[in-house]
Amino acid sequence: MKRTTLAVMMTFALAATSANVAANDWKDASKDAWIDGKAETTLLLNGNLNSFSIDTDVKNGVVTLTGKVESEVDKALAEELIENLDGVESVDNKLMVEHSDKKRDHDKDGNALKDAKITTVVKTRLLFESEVSGTSINVDTKNGTVTLKGEVDSSAEKDLAMAIAKNTKDVKDVVNKLRVNK
Question: Using only C-alpha atoms, what is the Rg of the chain?
Answer without folding.
Answer: 22
